[in-house]
Amino acid sequence: MNTTLLHRLWHWLTALTVLGLVGTFFLRKTFLSWRTNSRVIEEGLTAEGVEITAGLAKTLAKTIRAPMWEWHYYLGFALVVLLAFRLLLFLFFDDRQVVRSSLFGSQFRTLRSNATKHSAELAAGIHRARVYTLYLVVFGVLFFMSASGVLLCFDDSLGLSRELVESTKEAHEWVAWLASLFIPLHIVGVVFAELRVEPGIVSKMIGGSKE
Predict the structure, then answer these.
(1) Any alpha helices (H) in 93-161, and if so which ranges?
(2) What is the pTM for the complete model shown?
């Protein structure tokens, strides 16, 4: 795994960006949900003797959350830039090793053919292949999140049909839940690797390799 300064900067900036995206997504679905807050507004004003329509309460609830949701757009565009930068790292550094050493790569197939069964070399190769395969899955998820987010942001300009927008939005939200699940799994995996499989991995991602 590359732990150059550029790779580490990309890793931590992407981590902060994804945390921000997931955080704003959770706020939209929970505390700042227009469905919940429109009822609160409607019931609160009605209790004070002020009549308000459900439509106006919905508009007010969406207006309240709008500043927060603007940050989701900013972070989304930041993720697009970070992924483009990661693609450059892939092209100009030897990051193709990630693909070759994954479960689908040529190096892993060669290792399985040549390594002694139950050997330490094979065990390490299998672990590395699983980790690299997970990297590829995560990159795929992030690319889909970015692409679908851009489509949703510019749906009017692109002239997308209402059906396509709705299906894209649904897929975007499902992938967002998947990204939310990945965060705690990633933390658990890093702790496991630090303690059992690859001691020093955390310090490498912070200060770089000392080799």
Answers:
(1) 96-100, 106-114, 120-153, 155-158
(2) 0.82
- In terms of Cα–Cα distance, which of 107, 139, 145 is closest to 126? 107
Ramachandran angles phi, psi of 119, nearest 5°: -75, 160
Count the Cβ atoms, other than its own, within 10 Å of residue 13. 15
User: Which domains, and CATH codes, for the chain?
Assistant: 5-207 (1.20.950)
Q: Which amino acid is at 64?
A: I
Q: Are 17 and 75 in contact (CB under 8 A)?
A: yes
DSSP state of 30: T
The string of DSSP letters for 174-195 reads HHHHHHHHHHHHHHHHHHHIII
Distance from C-alpha of 81 to C-alpha of 75, rounded to nearest angstrom: 10
Q: What is the pLDDT of residues 153-172, one digit of tens each?
A: 999 999 999 999 999 999 99
